[in-house]
Amino acid sequence: MSHHPEASASSLDGTSVDQRFAFDYRQIGALAVDQRWSTWGNCQPLSRGPQPWPDWVITDDAAVDTELGVLKTGKEADVFLLERSAPLDDRSVVLAAKRYRDSTHRTFHRNTAYTDGRKLPKKGGREARAMAKSTTFGKSVAAGSWAWAEWESLVRFHRAGLPVPYPVQVDGTEILMELVLGDDGTPAPRLAATRPRPELLASLWSQVYDAVSGLAALGCVHGDLSAYNLLVAGERLVMIDLPQTIDLFGNPHGMEMLQRDCTNVAAWFRARGLDVDGEELFGEVVARAV
After folding, report:
1. Alpha-carbon gap, residue 290 to 285, rounded angstroms
2. Residue 60: CB partners within 8 Å, gap ≥ 6?
3. What pTM was computed for the model?
4. Three-class SS of residue 54?
């Protein structure tokens, strides 16, 4: 806010501006090439994370986003490290910024098994026509639809108490979310990159059971669950990569994908010496969900 609350000035259209409600961006100075003004103010209420917002979420319109580099590259999206700072009160937080590529730049193309039963742009509408013709706009719509699908899953699962990163905001093809950290304060490793001791291995498997069961209780399936999209934050397991989440009962492939999720993740644990059975997990989860 301005440091001169009694002052007033004229805007570009000649109207009077009350300086108590005007922020003077000159207090911060010019932004560097790797910076931008916070996009929080661009987002509608449904594009912001569940309330109450955690204390570390910065909602200041004068905040600045600074690119810190790439955290992970993927077949359809890349995850960047982004620092959001509020210069006036000296607060900052590092977030994970997941940015979806359009179909031209993706190396993975999802088939209809993932989209069966999912709400898509209205048939015959401008967005649907653009997607069918693969125009530049259509490719952007398609990328945005995957970002929105993941956003909705993150919000729903977080509200249900499932182990997912807190979703901060979604803006077009970019999702900002909590950066999950390990005990040493660095980004949490994927399960596939860890070698847990026996006690932790058993605990992590128990958490997998709870997470898959929790999804099924909501009528959902991860759809691509493996040791590569589970993070290990100390002794806590966190699910990531959720754009392909499908309806367990509304999608004709739901049960098949749930079975695949169970067997895939069980194979990793079994290879590390834990006596588990993916088919048994599948049967128990289905029994609890129906």
Report:
1. 9
2. 38, 40, 86, 88, 89
3. 0.80
4. coil
Question: What single letter denotes the amino acid at residue 200?
Answer: L
What does the alpha-carbon distance between residue 226 and residue 191 come to, in Å, rounded to a whole number?
9
Sheet containing 35-37, strands listed edge to edge, beginning at the edge strand earlier in sequence: 35-37, 64-73, 77-86, 91-100, 174-178, 167-171
Return all residues near 42 (Cβ < 8 A) that are at least 6 apart. 171
Could you give the C-alpha distances from 117 to 151, 250, 282, 283, 286, in angstroms and in order? 18, 6, 22, 23, 19
- The pLDDT, as a whole number, for residue 24 is 54
97 touches 176 (CB < 8 A): yes
Q: How far apart are CA 33 and CA 25, in angstroms?
A: 17
Is residue 40 within 8 A of residue 169, CB to CB? The reply is yes
Q: In this predicted structure, what is the pLDDT of residue 88?
A: 83
Strands (E), 44-154: 64-73, 77-86, 91-100
Q: Give the bridge partners for 1, in sequence order.
A: none
The answer to whether 19 and 8 are in contact (CB under 8 A) is yes
Which residue, 202, 206, 196, is CA-closest to 233?
Answer: 196
Amino acid at 105: H
Q: Which two tokens stand for residue 199?
A: 């006690």
The alpha carbon torsion through 221, 116, 178, 196 (nearest 10 deg) reads 40
**281 Cβ contact list (under 8 Å, min separation 6):** 208, 209, 212, 262, 266
What is the dihedral angle through the alpha carbons of 141, 147, 148, 150, rounded to the nearest 10 degrees? 150
Q: Which residues of the chain have pLDDT under 50?
A: 1-7, 11-12, 20, 22, 105-109, 120-121, 123, 125-141
| Run of H or E including 213 | helix 198-217
